């Protein structure tokens, strides 16, 4: 029985069926419950049987009788009904979760201001003119009313059906017959209908996959079995024999002209010879004049270190054996640590992309894609936020705007925002961003704006008019700037607006309750009315997430799952603007990408696994709603700085062999860092040296943000064409069975360790959960993510033109299923977090997730673009920076003591890649030896001894060679990586600062977790600036005390006192031992030079530290040094200074 949707303001008429039941469509496990939401926010649920008793109530005066389709009653055209349902879905907030019904609440408005864009939730439309009906008139992609009669009588969809079926097709306005009773031509301006999925059995995803595989099956590609079918190649082309093959036409053109006369826009022979064979990316090797000396120096330094350590072990210092022993142990560890860090740097490479080739292959008219429609795969972008107080909503809104304006096919791009705090402030800020995008995105497209973060763009200090040629740019920029200023004011005022609104509604509810109490109890003494103080949305209903005043089911760790489609999926064809109104957008595509707000369900008693759990919830929800084969994850403060960044990353994924890439990592670049980069916030040594070097192995590690994932790799599958286990000593005794001849397509989705083992489909629900929607989406995502099979060397490819079919429209059952997969119970007894998705159990879930992929044989790529791909913020305050490093180091310690230790890696991981991951887990332990070594110079000066008995020539030569090779290696690293010497030195300084503070605390916390089971919790790093609005770097001078500062302060004080003591001892000695003094003072100054930025940070703002502080410090150091000499005078003396005595 078909059920027609009644699309009016009441949420009680939403069902999970379409106008036409699709053939063979399975029943939907998750249903949308009929529900009416009262003004107080309480839901009253109904079933179809219950509606009969309620039809006479005031809330249900308008209803539609469901009649089976008969010759006299034909349902509306499916293309129209699907569009109308999608409009309904985009205006509804879906909520649900564990042991609760999934409900759709129709939002009259999502923000206080007016929404104009037709894709946006809560967009206003005309009301039906039929008396007693307040439903909305149907609209097209531009938001304009669809009026079936020439008299422009406004009528909704249901009333129009009634007029056609029961009213004889007479218009209620002019009383004339309708000329068109189908509205088909009025829905699509170009007259093209959305292709329907083929009939037959199977789910919607299965039939979509079948449609993609059957689209443009040209034999110009290598078949999936590895054989090239020359017969199909000949007969499927219009070519004849010539130029040595069967591809060229008589006039040298292919696919040109209607009659093959060569007058069209076809490709010539030269084009066909160049286009399919040109790679999308290429490797740029380091010049031999740089890399060869670099490798030679590494080898020389390894030999010198080995000889030096051997000499140190053999030549003890009997006068201070304890000092010698500690120094040798530390030096052995430092040599091992340097070796683990240096060996993975032997093969650094650079890469480059060719965006022009990408456009020619995927967006240029060809025989398989005559219209030139984009054949690029879909893209899902994830933005995560958790606390609007520490992560300002305006920062998140700017990130969202940069994503919506990215240069990527609009219909292929989707943005999902995870609000793990379930805050109404984030929700409404996101809605404001969607509203402002109606102006900002077309403006960026029209004038090629860079960057496309409005806050960063309008804050640029360079000339904004450079290279701008359009005469109306100045006018447009001025108008958009004014709108952006108003947008910022609206977002910044949201906390007060929400609070005032909630107080007003709460007072109204209290008054209502008091009136009811007085009516029910006339003579009784009235008690004060207590009503929970709720947080209210703009449409006058309760917010289903976290309330400002926590209550049951509305707290940070206890609220329902929420999904709101802020911007519905765009139309398949470009939609150009008009010259009327705010901007002249005549030739500008005004469509906006899909934008979805997601807040996963949280309940007490469940481990929600922090950011990793939120990311996995987004993976599942996006698979249901858009199923982009590629995922880009960004922190809320990291925005797209290069609008072409998505295309740059796609070049690697779509290139030959790209199907074996699990992710493309982009470098992290930061704004708002002080010019001197006091605490090495830019971290350029890691991002430009270590990561480039790892790119020459199996690829860089995953560092949390700015990473483009292949969805199938996140699902825990092995890469295609995975090699067998490398031969071992057991292979001769236990030979493996002969590989079965299984087509490559059937081996594309595997989780076993061998290529010839097919996946057991019965185990899929146990791995991924019980959502059939999610499981059916997996092969679709795998197929869409394949590179083009445009060359015989491309294996596991897809036919050109397969991804030009439109995406499916959203319906209520799809969003309801997405609500189900973000519930708190969905991951129970599945492999989410253990093998699938982001991995749980570590505060550095990013490194562990990347390690698991590399361990299965996947490769990754490092993409350094000419213009920074992404930019974000970093904490410039010393305390915040130390806490950030503490979190990273603690995660590394957890990795070392877990099954993710690189020592346990599989044989699929290369040895140098394994060493790199081993160094990730080991580097915090260097802090133990570093602390000891930083105290050694002071102990040497206090005791009058040194780590060697005498400063002989051998020791000094070794020291000189080790120092020179270190400097030369640093210079060569600077040469091939492009960093500056100052950045390298800042990194060395903060390595010692972090090693003596945060790394040591991380080792202690990690050991406590492993030995005693003490869980580690961290707070979010604040993205807000200091209180001084006049100083951009106010945070830099803020001194916030933390216990992490104790070890570095102690080291500084002890070394300063030791230098004073050493000078005093030597000066007052009868026989001064200058060699030991020089050795101790040299190493003390080495320690103090590295800790200088730390000491500078403790002094606060320059000029604010009183001079008396320095005077007191000097007096204390001198007094303590003299006291030490008096207590332990030089040998042969019992007085201070020998013959000198105080008067």
Concise description?
This protein is of the alpha/beta class and 1143 residues long. It has 33 helices and 21 strands. Among the domains are: 127-177; 303-343 and 903-1022 and 1033-1127, no CATH class; 353-364 and 377-513 and 530-719 and 763-801 and 808-874, Spore Coat Polysaccharide Biosynthesis Protein SpsA, Chain A.
How would you describe this structure to a colleague?
Belongs to the glycosyltransferase 2 family. Plant cellulose synthase-like D subfamily. Keywords: Cell wall biogenesis/degradation, Glycosyltransferase, Golgi apparatus, Membrane, Transferase, Transmembrane, Transmembrane helix. Residues 10-20 have a biased composition (Polar residues). It is found in: Golgi apparatus membrane. By secondary structure, the protein is of the alpha/beta class. Among the domains are: 127-177; 303-343 and 903-1022 and 1033-1127, no CATH class; 353-364 and 377-513 and 530-719 and 763-801 and 808-874, Spore Coat Polysaccharide Biosynthesis Protein SpsA, Chain A, CATH 3.90.550. The protein is 39% helix and 8% strand. The chain has 33 helices and 21 strands. Helix 11 packs parallel to helix 12 (424-447) and helix 26 runs parallel beside helix 30. The longest helix is centred in the N-terminal third of the chain and has 27 residues, at 288-314. It is globular and about 120 Å long. The N and C termini lie far apart (113 Å). Residues 1-76, 183-196, 216-275, 724-739 and 1134-1143 have low confidence and may be disordered.
């Amino acid at each position: 029985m078909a059920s027609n949707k009644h699309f009016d303001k009441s949420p009680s008429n939403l069902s999970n069926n379409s106008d036409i039941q699709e053939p063979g469509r399975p029943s939907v496990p998750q249903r949308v419950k009929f529900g009416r939401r009262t003004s107080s926010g309480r839901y009253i649920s109904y079933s179809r049987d219950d509606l009969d008793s309620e039809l006479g109530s005031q809330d249900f005066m308008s209803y539609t009788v469901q009649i089976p389709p008969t010759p006299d009653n034909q349902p509306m055209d499916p293309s129209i009904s699907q569009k109308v349902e999608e409009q309904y879905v985009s205006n509804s907030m879906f909520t649900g979760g564990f042991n609760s019904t999934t409900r759709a609440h129709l939002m009259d408005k999502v923000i206080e201001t007016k929404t104009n864009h037709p894709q946006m939730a809560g967009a206003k439309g005309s009301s039906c003119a039929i008396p007693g009906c307040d439903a909305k008139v149907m609209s097209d992609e531009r938001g304009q009313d669809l009026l079936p009669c020439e008299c422009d009588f406004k009528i909704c969809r249901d009333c129009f059906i009634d007029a056609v079926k029961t009213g004889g097709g007479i218009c209620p306005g002019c009383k004339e017959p309708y000329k068109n009773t189908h509205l088909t031509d009025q829905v699509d301006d170009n007259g093209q209908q959305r292709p329907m999925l083929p009939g037959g059995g199977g789910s919607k995803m299965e039939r979509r996959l079948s449609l993609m595989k059957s689209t443009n099956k040209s034999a110009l590609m290598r078949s999936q079995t590895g054989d090239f079918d020359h017969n199909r190649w000949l007969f499927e082309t219009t070519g004849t024999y010539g130029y040595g093959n069967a591809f060229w036409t008589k006039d040298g053109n292919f696919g040109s002209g209607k009659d093959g006369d060569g007058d069209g826009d076809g490709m010539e022979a030269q084009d066909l010879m160049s286009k399919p064979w040109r790679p999308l990316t290429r490797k740029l090797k380091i010049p031999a004049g740089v890399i060869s000396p670099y490798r030679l120096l590494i080898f020389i330094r390894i030999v010198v270190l080995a000889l030096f350590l051997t000499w140190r072990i053999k030549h003890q210092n009997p006068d201070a054996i304890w000092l010698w022993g500690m120094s040798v142990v530390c030096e052995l560890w430092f040599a091992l640590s340097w070796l683990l860090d240096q060996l993975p740097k032997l093969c650094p490479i650079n890469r480059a992309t060719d965006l022009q080739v990408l456009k020619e292959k995927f967006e240029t008219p060809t025989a398989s894609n005559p219209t030139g429609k984009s054949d690029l795969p879909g893209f899902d972008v994830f933005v995560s936020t958790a606390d609007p107080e520490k992560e300002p909503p305006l920062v998140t809104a700017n990130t969202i705007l940069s994503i919506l304006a990215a240069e990527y096919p609009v219909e292929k791009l989707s943005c999902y925002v995870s609000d793990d705090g379930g805050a109404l402030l984030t929700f409404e800020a996101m809605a404001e961003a969607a509203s402002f995008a109606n102006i900002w995105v077309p403006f960026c497209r029209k004038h090629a704006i860079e960057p496309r973060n409005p806050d960063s763009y309008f804050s640029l200090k360079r000339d904004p008019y450079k290279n701008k040629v359009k005469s109306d740019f100045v006018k447009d920029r001025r108008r958009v700037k004014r709108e952006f200023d108003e947008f910022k004011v609206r977002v910044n005022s949201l906390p007060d607006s929400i609070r005032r609104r909630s107080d007003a509604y709460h007072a109204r509810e209290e008054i209502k309750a008091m009136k009811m109490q007085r009516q029910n109890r006339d003579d009784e003494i009235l008690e004060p009315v207590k009503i929970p103080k709720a947080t209210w949305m703009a449409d006058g209903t309760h917010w289903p997430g976290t309330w400002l005043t926590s209550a049951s089911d509305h707290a940070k760790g206890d609220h329902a799952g929420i999904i709101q489609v802020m911007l519905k999926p765009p139309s398949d064809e470009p939609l150009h603007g008009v010259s009327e109104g705010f901007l002249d957008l005549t030739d500008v595509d005004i469509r906006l990408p899909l934008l979805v707000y997601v807040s996963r369900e949280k309940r007490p008693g469940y481990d929600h696994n922090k950011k990793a759990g939120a990311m996995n919830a987004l993976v599942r929800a996006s698979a249901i709603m858009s199923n982009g084969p590629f995922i880009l994850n960004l922190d809320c403060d990291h925005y797209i700085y290069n609008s072409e960044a998505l295309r740059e990353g796609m070049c690697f994924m779509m290139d030959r062999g790209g199907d074996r890439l699990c992710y493309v990592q982009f470098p992290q670049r930061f704004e708002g860092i002080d010019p001197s980069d006091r605490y090495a916030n830019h971290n350029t040594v890691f991002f430009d040296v270590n990561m480039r070097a790892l790119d020459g192995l199996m690829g860089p590690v995953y560092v949390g943000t700015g990473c483009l994932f292949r969805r199938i790799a996140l699902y825990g599958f092995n890469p295609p064409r995975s090699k067998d286990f490398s031969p071992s000593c057991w292979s001769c005794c236990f030979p493996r069975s002969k590989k079965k001849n299984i087509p490559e397509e059937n081996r594309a989705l595997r989780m076993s360790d061998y290529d010839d083992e097919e996946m057991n489909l019965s185990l899929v629900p146990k791995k991924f959960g019980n959502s059939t929607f999610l499981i059916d989406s997996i092969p679709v995502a795998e197929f869409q993510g394949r590179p083009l099979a445009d060359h015989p060397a491309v294996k596991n490819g897809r036919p050109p033109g397969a991804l030009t079919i439109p995406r499916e429209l959203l319906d209520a059952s799809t969003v309801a299923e997405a609500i189900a997969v973000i519930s708190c119970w969905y991951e129970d007894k599945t492999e989410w977090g253990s093998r699938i998705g982001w991995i749980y159990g570590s505060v550095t879930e990013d490194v562990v997730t990347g390690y698991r992929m590399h361990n299965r044989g996947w490769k990754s790529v490092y993409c350094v673009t000419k213009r920074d791909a992404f930019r974000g913020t970093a904490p410039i305050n010393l305390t915040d920076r130390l806490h950030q490093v503490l979190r990273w180091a603690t995660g590394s310690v957890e990795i070392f003591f877990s099954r993710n230790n690189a020592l346990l890696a599989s044989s699929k991981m290369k040895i140098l890649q394994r060493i790199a991951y081993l160094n990730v887990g080991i580097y915090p332990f260097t802090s133990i030896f570093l602390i000891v070594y930083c105290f050694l110079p002071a102990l040497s000066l206090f005791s009058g001894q040194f780590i060697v008995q005498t400063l002989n020539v051998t020791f000094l030569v070794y020291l000189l060679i080790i120092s020179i090779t270190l400097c030369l290696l640093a210079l060569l690293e600077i040469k091939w990586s492009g960093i500056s010497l100052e950045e390298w030195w800042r990194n060395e300084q903060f390595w010692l600062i972090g090693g003596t503070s945060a790394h040591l605390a991380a080792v202690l916390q990690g050991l406590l977790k492993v030995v005693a089971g003490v869980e580690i919790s961290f707070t979010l790093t604040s993205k807000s600036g200091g209180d001084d609005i006049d100083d951009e770097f106010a945070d830099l001078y803020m001194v916030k005390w933390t216990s992490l500062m104790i070890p570095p302060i102690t080291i500084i004080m002890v070394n300063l006192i030791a230098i004073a003591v050493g000078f005093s001892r030597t000066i007052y000695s009868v026989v001064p031992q200058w060699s030991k003094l020089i050795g101790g003072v040299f190493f003390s100054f080495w320690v103090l030079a590295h800790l200088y930025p730390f000491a500078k940070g403790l002094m606060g703002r320059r000029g604010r530290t009183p001079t008396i502080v320095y005077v007191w410090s000097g007096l204390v150091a001198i007094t303590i040094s003299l006291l030490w000499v008096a207590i332990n005078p030089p040998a042969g003396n019992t007085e201070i200074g020998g013959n000198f005595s105080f008067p």
